[in-house]
Amino acid sequence: MIVDGDAPLDWDPARAGIEGLTRSGRRSLVGVLARAFRDNPMNVRIHGPDPRRRVRANAAGLRSLVLDHSERVIVMGMAYGSRVIGGFVLAPPGARRLPGPSFRRQIECLCLQGPAAMAAWSEVAVGVPDHRPVEDHWYLAVLGVEPTWQGRGVGAALLAEIGRWVSRDPRPICLESDRPASVRFYQRHGFAIRAEGEVRGVPCWCLGRGFPRGTAE
Ligand SMILES: CC(C)(COP(=O)(O)OP(=O)(O)OC[C@H]1O[C@@H](n2cnc3c(N)ncnc32)[C@H](O)[C@@H]1OP(=O)(O)O)[C@@H](O)C(=O)NCCC(=O)NCCS
Fold first, then answer.
1. Which of 13, 142, 177, 217 has CB atoms 3.0–4.6 Å from 182's, for a disulfide?
2. CB 195 within 8 A of CB 129
3. Is any ligand 1 atom within 6 A of the Cβ of residue 88?
4. Percent of the chain scoring above 90 in pLDDT
5. Contact 84, 20 (CB under 8 A)
6. What predicted TM-score, i.e. pTM, was given to this entire model?
7. Ligand 1: which of 38, 85, 128, 152 to mutate, most ligand atoms within 8 Å of CB?
């Protein structure tokens, strides 16, 4: 039986269960993602040098995406024992761009991020190169692994699960990242850079997989 704590050396994330999360699992995933993205360059640029502040601010920004759109997006996670250790939010083809956060979420963000950071994130949203095709496609809104669990194959296992979803309705998938190590991770898993740019002085990359040859920039 799996228990909480360190995974044994022979623990294989490729064989671990990945499942749709309950409300409480999704709440745990918010924390995991807030920590996973803590040191990403845009977070540091917008929320400053205090890592605890960055985690709090990230969690406020992620709640809307992870908790409020379960009927529109696929939210899945990997658990080790009772702990969520990684997960993703995937928008299927046909899902329109998600509506902005509710009034309540905006108030939470105002308290935990502050108005300047909220304005900065709005600038990021419009500043990232517009790389998403007009045709229906999958969109990986977020994928993250608890920092202490990174580099053990959890991300690869989650990406394999994403691949299984995509294979049910084979269309291109795209995403954005501001972290060079994450870009390399995706490239090793068959993604290509489709566009790159700089927002608020931070480089960012738009990647895709499954696009017809020659459409990647
Ligand atoms: C990007 C991210 C999701 C990758 O997750 P991860 O769990 O670290 O990924 P993996 O462990 O599968 O792969 C990373 C590297 O770890 C190493 N690794 C993989 N399996 C391993 C294992 N069983 N044992 C030891 N090392 C392993 C490998 O070097 C691997 O590189 P490879 O792709 O050449 O095999 C994670 O680093 C993350 O959350 N980053 C911050 C958030 C982010 O930027 N997300 C992406 C934008 S949405």
1. 177
2. yes
3. no
4. 78
5. no
6. 0.92
7. 152
Q: What is the pLDDT of residues 10-68, one digit of tens each?
A: 888 888 889 999 999 999 999 999 999 999 999 999 999 999 999 999 999 999 999 99
73 touches ligand 1 (CB under 6 Å): no
* Domain hosting residue 182, numbered range: 18-209
Domain count, the chain: 1
- Closest atom, ligand 1, to C-alpha of 140: 48
Residue 9 lies in a domain: no
Q: Distance between CA 196 and CA 192 in Å, rounded?
A: 11
CA of 114 to the centre of ligand 1 (A): 32
- Angle, CA 92 vertex, CA 107 and CA 161 arms, to 5°: 105
Expressed in angstroms and rounded, the spacing between residue 156 Cα and the centre of ligand 1 is 6
Whether residue 8 lies inside any domain: the answer is no
